[in-house]
Amino acid sequence: MKLSEKEKASHREAFKKMDLQDKMIYIFSYYKAYIIVPLVVLILLGHFLYASVTRKEPVLYLAFINVAAGEDFKKSVNEDFLTLHFDKPQKKEVLIYNELYLSDNASTENNQYAYASRIKILGSIEAEKLDICIVNKEAYDILSNSGYLYDLTQLLTKQELSSLQSSLINNDVLVNDNRIDHLLDEDTAVDSSSVSVCNGIDISNVKMIKDAGFPEKLYLCIIANSKRIETIRTFIGYLFS
Fold first, then answer.
1. Are residues 189 and 124 in the same domain?
2. What's the rounded Cα separation, in Å, for the pair 205 and 70?
3. Domain check: are 39 and 143 in the same one?
4. pLDDT per position as a tens digit, 178-197
5. Do 78 and 25 have their domain in common?
6. Most Cβ neighbours (<10 Å): which of 61, 73, 184, 227?
7. According to the model, what pLDDT value does residue 182 have?
8. Alpha carbon distance 196, 141 (integer Å)
């Protein structure tokens, strides 16, 4: 309801007699809608602008399994590699999944961690958000046997294969495995066969890896459904440069 001039004058007079705290309460009570709505809009706008400025585009997804990446490795990958090979490197990143754990013989205390890691790995593969794995021998064997890895002879050029020849590793890939059927029905003959595929690279002697002081041999392998092939090849070249 619109106030009369007399009522307005009365309000002004009452406002003049208030102390600072009462004046603030009075202003907020009468004008809170005009204060809160613009404030919320400003906060949301600021959040959106901050997210837009700081958001980075993943150019590669890399997982360390049964081994942990140190801060020096992360820094090198997300600074040197990106600066050397990409425009506007500050807008890009190599997204690293660290300290995942794969084992077919996990101890009781590690069983839940191994299960959660396996779900994370499988989910990332399904979402095509896992390209390269850096792993120990146990994790490498599990990934290879499960058929998750790229045949490097189909990925790399002849020149790249030749330059990496001393580091290329073959591993078994199961092509038939009916052991579960056999457990369910003992009359079913076991049919478990595998083929040997070149799907790993021994990176233990790569300077960046040696400098990090990893205690065991490490292998680099490529997830078979990766779509970032050129970036993968560039990254391998960067490691061995």
1. yes
2. 17
3. no
4. 554 545 556 666 566 889 99
5. no
6. 61
7. 43
8. 12
CA-CA distance, 165 to 193, in Å (whole number)? 27
* Same domain flag for 138 and 175: yes
Do residues 48 and 75 share a domain? no
Give me the phi and psi of 218, to 5 degrees please. -120, 150
How many other C-beta atoms can be found within 10 angstroms of the C-beta atom of residue 236? 23
Question: Once rounded to an integer, what is the mean pLDDT over residues 51-76?
Answer: 85
Distance CA 146, CA 104 (A): 12
Q: Which of 99, 49, 52, 91 is nearest to 74 (CA)?
A: 99
Distance between CA atoms of 124 and 97, rounded to whole angstroms?
10
Domain residue limits at 47? 5-53
Question: By the 8 A CB rule, do 18 and 26 touch?
Answer: yes
**Nearest-5° Cα angle at 195, 191 to 198:** 155
**Same domain, yes or no: 47 and 83:** no
Q: Residue 191 and residue 219: Cα distance in Å, rounded?
A: 29
Distance CA 12, CA 15 (A): 5
Contact 94, 228 (CB under 8 A): no
Please count the structural domains in the chain: 2
The encoded tokens of residue 216 equal: 């065991």
Spatial distance between the Cα atoms of 103 and 48, rounded to a whole number of angstroms: 42
Residue 208 and residue 231 in one domain: yes
Share of the chain residues as helix, strand and coil, in percent rounded to the nearest 5: 55, 20, 25
DSSP-derived secondary structure letter, 71: H
**Strand (E) positions, the chain?**
57-65, 92-100, 132-135, 168-177, 192-202, 219-222
Give the global pTM.
Answer: 0.74
